[in-house]
Amino acid sequence: MAIDRVYYITKREAIEVVSKYHYSKVMPRLTKFYIGAYEGKKLVGVFTLGWGTRPLHTIKKLFPSLGTKDYFECGKLCLSDSMPKNSESEFISKVIKLVKKDMPQIKLIFSWADGIMGKPGYVYQASNFFYGGYIWTEAYLDKNNVRIHVRTLQGINSKKGQKYGTRAFDIISEQGYRILYGKQFRYIYPTCNKREWKKLLKETEFNWARGGYPKDKDIEFFIKDKDGKRKIDEIKMNTTIYTKINEEFKNQITLF
Fold first, then answer.
1. How far apart (Å, rounded) are the C-alpha atoms in residues 52 and 68?
2. Which of 11, 157, 172, 218 is a good FRET partner for 125, with 20 to 30 A between their CA atoms?
3. What are the angstrom distances between the C-alpha of 110 and each of 44, 129, 140, 231?
4. How would you write the chain as a 3-class SS string?
5. Measured between alpha carbons, how far is 184 from 194 in angstroms, rounded to an integer?
6. Are 127 and 109 in contact (CB under 8 A)?
7. CA distance 154 to 7
């Protein structure tokens, strides 16, 4: 069956769905809206809208004339495994229509695809998002292979009285974290009219395009070595192991 409707749900309902179907269970702190996908009366998916850790910095970097009131960032997107192929792009399409209807002041929906976790962003490509290149970033896995955000590490270390940065390699590795290094891919969908979008394109430094999308071969993933340098000869992440590091992978790359 297909998605019958999408509508706003509670945070508790969203957390229950995310805990079942998303590879990362942590809900972004600055989440504004939780939107559910329904198959009949059954809640089968969640799409959250809000902002990342640095909302104003993010939008000013992308489009200098805009502010936080002008955009949302996609926080979580997941669906039940029982849903048919292409349901995610159908879900996104319905969410975009809902945003346009209920929040006409929103001009853009922005999202990162976690290449560092094996995801080049196929769902955004299928949903006709504009691609805007990538950044290199770090991520951290605890001993149970759960991804920990850098802000979470900062909070943990602050409580321990450690005032120096959590990115110090020896501190993080002593705490038992793997340090990953890889790409995150930018995607954006304009919910404003075409005239305004063309105007925004003139002020951005990024080459936004519906094409040139990254694929599995473009995913690059490295482990940080003991000297704090990024090795270029490590095993690359792929879509078969992004949810957890399997036993074969563990045998080849161990905790420091």
1. 11
2. 11
3. 23, 9, 23, 30
4. CCCCEEEECCHHHHHHHHHHHCCCCCCCCCEEEEEEEEECCEEEEEEEEECCCCHHHHHHHHCCCCCHHHEEEEEEEEECCCCCCCHHHHHHHHHHHHHHHHCCCCCEEEEEECHHHCCCCHHHHHCCCEEEEEEEEEEEECCCCCEECHHHHHHHHHHCCCCCCCCCHHHHHHCCCEEEEEEEEEEEEECCCHHHHHHHHCCCCCCCECCCCCCHHHCCEEEECCCCCECCCCCCCCCCCCCCCCHHHHHHCCCC
5. 27
6. no
7. 35
Contact call for residues 180 and 101 (beta carbons, < 8 A): no
Rounded CA separation 7/233 (Å): 46
- Cβ atoms of 211 and 131 closer than 8 Å: yes
CA 160 to chain centre: 29
For the entire predicted model, the pTM comes to 0.80
Interval 15-34: pLDDT, tens = 888 887 766 656 677 899 99
Residue 90 forms beta bridges with which residues?
Answer: none
Identify the burial level of 41 via C-beta atoms within 10 angstroms of its C-beta, where 0-12 means exposed, 13-18 middle and 19 or more buried.
exposed
Which pair of structure tokens corresponds to residue 241?
A: 């192991």
Q: Is the pLDDT of residue 68 over 60?
A: yes
The radius of gyration of the chain from alpha carbons, rounded to an integer in Å, stands at 19
The single residue listed with the structure tokens 């976790």 is 117
- Give the span between the Cα atoms of 115 and 218, in whole angstroms: 8
Tell me: the pLDDT tens digits for 137-164?
877 777 776 667 666 666 555 555 555 4
